Amino acid sequence: MSTDSGRAEVENRSYGPDDGILVANDLRKEFGGLVAVDDLSFAVQEGEILGFIGPNGAGKSTTFNSVTGTYPPTDGTVYFKGEDVTGIPAHEMVKKGMARTFQEFAPLEDRTVVKNIELALAPDELFTLAGVGGESEALATEIAKRVGLGDVLDQTPSELPHAGMLKLELGRAIATQPDVMLVDEPFAGLSGKEVQELSEVMESLRQHGMTLIVVDHNMRGLLNLIDRAFVIQFGSKIAEGDPDEIKNDPKVQEAYLGGDEI
Amino acid sequence: MATKTPFEGNTKERRREAVKEKLQFSELTLRHRIGVYAIVLLGLFPVFLTPLELDAFRPVLFFMMFAMSWDVVSGYTGQLSFGHAFFFAIGGYGSAVVTTQHGLPVIVGIVLATVVAALGGLLIGIPALRLEGPYLSLVTLIAPLLLYQTFILFSENLPLFAPQGLGGTGGLPTQPPQIVGFAQDALVTVSGNMSWALGRYYTAFAAFLIVLSVCYAVTRSSAGTVFTAIREDENAVRSSGLNPAKFKIFAFVLAGAVGGFAGAMFVHAGGFPNTENLLGPGRIDLSIQVIIMAIIGGMGTIVGAVAGALLFALTTEVVNALTFTIPLLGIEFAALDPLPTFLLAMLVLVYLPDGVVPEAIRRGRRMRARYRGEEVPEPEPTGGNSPVQSTIQKYREEINDIIGRDNQ
């Protein structure tokens, strides 16, 4: 596809509820007079690993805070599994099968790694015997091992290195048994080996049928992981396609001019 | 996801088995066994105390219940309540009014008072969803003051609810019927001072057991881990698919119900329903005291609240017994009360931020390990926050949000 027609499509297309497992249509978020997300539309297909890329301050986090219910969008619609979920609270979104990790980690400092993950297995009920038989601890341990925290099960989050905290975030998100997982800036500050390790975890999640959205401000480290990406700037989408297409897109190059490398 | 699924087989059956197993004495860990011995010892107090001493000790049982009521909401979720006696007073006055002014049986009075206090918990819990910590604390602080004013305002007559009035500062005009007492209106009529004292003590002790079991069961279930997670980070709770609002309200309602129940039992077990007993001498004294008790013993542990109440009472007792005159000041040491007790609380906060009970457990473990010649466990890494520390941190952040980050 030629770049011109491709971009025209990018800008004008709007999506219906069944165009993907997670669909945002004309999503808009304003803070006072500031437009952080400007009528953004996108669709995420089931089973893909999608890169969601944009320079710092492009509105990536705001977009996903609006989608995952941290705050309601000013306008627009969010569909999840064909259902209108615009503005429902964050914990409801998690229950519907959409998990997320936080860029600023949100661990529980007072308990061990395995107990952190176990919280996500606790039922949202006031009176329950769940966990008494030790089954949620066993499952939490299993998840911790899967994300590479098997050696540090009994450490507290503050003892973990940066990569460990990330794995913990990932583990907790997995424990909510999501269908779609949003991973916010997973590779920031990681070594090449750690990026590799984490990519493998995410790839294996996809093999198990999970859809992943990876947010980052550049594509370094993402190239081998993602199937498709779209790039936003000033709250609007400027490009969409596979990693090579994105790299060669003049608009993207312009957006990154003088700044980070795409 | 997992290769071996822990949910195989009959989960319900296994959970029931697990609960049974946990309740078996021989399977209990040392600290739990010590706890059981301590409770048995409390139950045996009448064997070695005179009726007079028993009467003096009975209020301590109620302090324990009040402190547990505070701990279940504030110690666990970090939503500090500065006016917790609100619930005790609702329970005590409620049951007293229902039984004396409406002539209903004691049991009905206790149940109604507990329900009303639980509704009081809802009343405080709902603002808690919208208010940041410091603002919420103001609301909780004002609640008992408003209640106090209500008692004065409607001292002669509160239409429908209390036809004979709430008695003002002096308390209700009549002592409500007792669960065990001399009078005909008592649930169990006894004769003789000894059996009366025993009856009062065991009524209080039974109430203590009920409150302890309820608080213990809830906080040790998965709801308890959600409570403490709210104290640590509400975002983490939300992103775990749990509704923090629901658990916060539940904590307040539970604390209200437990506090109200304790207050109601207090007036039916020898305690007189007046503001001094149920709100404290200075309107908020009791509210502040329960906080100190829970912090001394160890916030967010329930057991700590019990131990803290005991320590608090002991310290007060010791201070009151020290009648020597302080040189230079020329006043009796006992006259300083409650200053020395509060000072002790400050020292605990600084040197044992976890509280006495968690610290004792930790030291006990190390001592036992040394005694058995095992590897001595390392002292806790400094990273893990104690409940007091995370609550304070949460407050600091919330205050910073209110006054603006520049003032850091």
Helix content range of the residues of chain B, please? 55-70%
The overall average pLDDT of chain A, rounded, is: 85
Side by side, the strands of the main sheet of chain A go 6-7-8-3-9-10
Question: What do the pLDDT scores of chain B average to?
Answer: 87
Measured by DSSP, the beta-strand proportion of chain B falls in under 5%
Radius of gyration of chain B: 23 Å
Which structural category do the helix and sheet elements of chain B fall into? mainly alpha
| Protein chains sharing the most extensive interface | A-B, 52 and 45 residues
Strand segment tally of chain A:
10
Strand order of the largest sheet of chain B: 1-2
Q: Helix fraction of chain A?
A: 25-40%
Straight-line N-to-C gap of chain A: 21 Å
Task: Characterise the protein shown here.
The complex is a heterodimer of chains A (262) and B (408). Chain A has 262 residues and is α/β, with parallel strands linked by helices. Helix content of chain A is 33%, strand content 23%. In chain A, a hairpin with a 2-residue loop joins strand 9 (228-233) and strand 10. Chain B has one domain. Chain B is built from 17 helices and 2 strands. In chain B, helix 4 crosses helix 13, helix 6 runs antiparallel to helix 11 and helix 9 packs across helix 11. The chains are: A alpha/beta (262), B mainly alpha (408). Chains A and B meet through helix 3, helix 4, helix 5 and helix 6 of A and helix 1, helix 9, helix 10 and helix 11 of B.
Give a short overview.
By secondary structure, chain A is α/β, with parallel strands linked by helices. Chain A is 33% helix and 23% strand.
Keywords:
heterodimer, A: 262 residues, alpha/beta, Rossmann fold, 2 domains, 6-stranded mixed β-sheet, 9 helices, 10 strands, disordered N terminus, B: 408 residues, mainly alpha, two-stranded parallel sheet, 67% helix
